[in-house]
């Protein structure tokens, strides 16, 4: 029996109901309705009336024909009043509007990061359970979601479609541009409860807190080295692979694991220094060098020693302090006489004086 006949049978069988007080029975799914009109409306849900799209031959439900045609025409009549983004369906616009809301009711139970949409949280959870089913066709790196892989592809294509209107700097992702804009506004709404340092993002505060607690939750399963951030672990794990460096400098043939490392290196050749200090106008090739330099003006020392009360302006300075004052570790070894040193500058001085 086809769907139309089912509907006719269901309606005809309900003719035997003698009064409005009796229940009208849907003989397709046995759901009871109070009136003949409601059972007729409900039965229509079982009837899948479809039309074939003349452009792509896809079978489309009657109610979705208008929205489907917009895929081919490019029409997007529903516009967001806050960012100007347009959509083919009103339901998609309503979902998008939640991204502008400060309310983020869906919270990750692992890292406490919150999201406006439930499906965004589901995609995020894949970063914790290790589920990565979307490989990059260029470098074979795996991603948890197709959207993340699509964003990553811009690393290979060099596409930077999101431009800053204040400094003409461009970015491959819209959220990266949004984060960059805070450089101009200097807004830091999130602060550390221990040292009162301000941050632009709440997630950065969580990472920063590990400099105080010493927590390093991400560990390498090959050498057991630990890290404070998952991105640092991913970078480290490439050390264990033979083909980990796929970006090559065209000037000196030096190779790098990441495109932004290659870009920073290229600036060394052309002398370009895009990051300037607002206090003394000194310029730097990399943003991290500028951040370290600014602390010479502010006196900020965010890195705390877990053995004593010493605080350092940079993580490398803290590591040097721990080696020289506490552990005695000597990682810098002279290849001529095998003498080891706690600091690289000590090794260089030794090489000049003795060899």
UniProtKB/TrEMBL annotation:
- Answer whether the UniProt record assigns the keyword NAD to this protein: no
Keywords, A to Z? Answer: Metal-binding, Nucleus, Repeat, Zinc, Zinc-finger
- Segments crossing the lipid bilayer: none
Start and end of every C2H2-type domain?
51-77, 78-105, 106-133, 134-161, 162-189, 190-217, 218-245, 247-274, 275-302, 303-331, 332-355
Q: Which domain of life is it from?
A: Eukaryota
Protein name in UniProt: C2H2-type domain-containing protein
Q: Which organism is it from?
A: Clavelina lepadiformis
Read off the lineage from the record.
Eukaryota, Metazoa, Chordata, Tunicata, Ascidiacea
């Amino acid at each position: 029996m086809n769907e139309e006949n089912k509907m006719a049978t269901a309606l005809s069988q309900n003719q035997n109901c003698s009064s409005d007080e009796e229940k009208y029975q849907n003989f397709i799914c046995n759901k009871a309705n109070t009136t003949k009109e409601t059972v007729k409306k409900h039965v229509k849900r079982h009837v899948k009336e479809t039309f074939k799209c003349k452009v792509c031959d896809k079978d489309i439900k009657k109610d979705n024909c208008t929205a489907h045609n917009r895929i081919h025409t490019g029409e997007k009549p529903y516009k967001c009043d806050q960012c100007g983004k347009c959509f083919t369906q009103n339901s998609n616009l309503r979902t998008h509007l939640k991204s502008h809301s400060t309310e983020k009711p869906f919270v990750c139970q692992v890292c406490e990061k919150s999201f406006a949409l439930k499906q965004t949280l589901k995609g995020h959870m894949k970063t914790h359970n290790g589920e990565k089913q979307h490989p990059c066709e260029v470098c074979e790196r795996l991603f948890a979601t197709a959207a993340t892989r699509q964003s990553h592809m811009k690393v290979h294509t060099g596409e930077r479609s999101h431009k800053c209107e204040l400094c003409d700097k461009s970015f491959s992702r819209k959220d990266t541009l949004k984060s960059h804009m805070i450089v101009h506004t200097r807004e830091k709404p999130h602060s550390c409860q221990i040292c009162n340092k301000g941050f632009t993002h709440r997630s950065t505060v969580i990472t920063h807190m590990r400099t105080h607690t010493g927590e390093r939750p991400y560990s390498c399963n090959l050498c057991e080295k630990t890290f404070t951030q998952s991105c640092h672990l991913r970078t480290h794990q490439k050390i264990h692979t033979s083909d980990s460096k796929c970006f090559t400098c065209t000037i000196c043939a030096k190779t790098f694991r990441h495109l932004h490392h290659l870009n920073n290196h290229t600036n060394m050749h052309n002398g370009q220094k895009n990051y300037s200090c607002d206090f003394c106008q000194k310029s730097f090739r990399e943003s991290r060098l500028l951040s370290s330099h600014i602390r010479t003006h502010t006196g900020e020392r965010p890195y705390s020693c877990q053995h004593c009360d010493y605080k350092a302006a940079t993580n490398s300075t803290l590591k040097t302090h721990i080696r020289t004052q506490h552990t005695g570790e000597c990682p810098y070894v002279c290849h001529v006489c095998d003498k080891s040193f706690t600091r690289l500058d000590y090794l260089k001085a030794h090489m000049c004086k003795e060899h």
